[in-house]
Amino acid sequence: MAETEALSKLREDFRMQNKSVFILGASGETGRVLLKEILEQGLFSKVTLIGRRKLTFDEEAYKNVNQEVVDFEKLDDYASAFQGHDVGFCCLGTTRVKAGAICISVLEHSWDLSSVMGTMDYREV
Ligand SMILES: NC(=O)c1ccc[n+]([C@@H]2O[C@H](COP(=O)([O-])OP(=O)(O)OC[C@H]3O[C@@H](n4cnc5c(N)ncnc54)[C@H](OP(=O)(O)O)[C@@H]3O)[C@@H](O)[C@H]2O)c1
């Protein structure tokens, strides 16, 4: 019980900080689940999807989601899409199971995200 209350307080404290987040790869299986969870939890005041194409959502819960379309081969040209966010999640790539022998990732593509990330809290899943 005390643990649940502590978690609730942590969530509320985090919400009060009005943090922003971006998600790379929100159209994929992993990114879709992450996006849904982030929206359900309501932890971030701003949610941005960064991808190579714009996504369509019918659900009301997605109406305030921002979207930025970028060319991953020219990331430096799209630095502004990443800026202004406190947290970033990368769900790019694909699973080996689905793609047979192919598993792409940010590293395998040599996409250098460091110049566009600044000092934000950035995680690859
Ligand atoms: N930590 C974990 O427990 C866990 C579990 C499962 C997967 N993963 C990892 O999560 C990553 C994604 O897996 P997934 O199953 O979600 O894959 P997925 O369903 O195939 O989704 C891949 C995502 O990456 C994007 N993408 C792929 N190639 C791209 C490219 N060349 N340029 C721009 N965007 C590209 C796709 O965009 P489009 O829709 O535009 O194609 C899509 O949003 C993989 O690295 C996987 O290993 C981690």
Automatic annotation (TrEMBL):
Superkingdom in the source lineage: Eukaryota
GO CC, one annotated term: cytoplasm
Residue ranges annotated for the NAD(P)-binding domain, each copy included: 25-98
InterPro entries named among the record's database cross-references: NAD(P)-bd_dom (IPR016040), NAD(P)-bd_dom_sf (IPR036291)
GO molecular function, one term: catalytic activity
BP terms from Gene Ontology: import into nucleus
Pfam families referenced in this protein's UniProt entry, alphabetically: NAD_binding_10
Gene3D superfamilies hit by this protein: NAD(P)-binding Rossmann-like Domain (3.40.50.720)
Subunit field text: Monomer. Forms homodimers during oxidative stress. Interacts (via N-terminus) with elongation factor EEF1A1 (via middle-region); the interaction is direct and competes with EEF1A1 binding to guanyl-nucleotide exchange factor EEF1B2, thereby inhibiting GDP for GTP exchange and reactivation of EEF1A1. Interacts with nuclear transport receptors XPO4, IPO5/RANBP5, IPO7, IPO9 and KPNB1 as well as GCN1L1/GCN1 and LRPPRC probably through their HEAT repeats. Binds NCOA5/CIA.
Name used for this protein in its record: Protein HTATIP2
Species, as recorded: Pongo abelii (Sumatran orangutan)
Native organism taxonomy: Eukaryota, Metazoa, Chordata, Craniata, Vertebrata
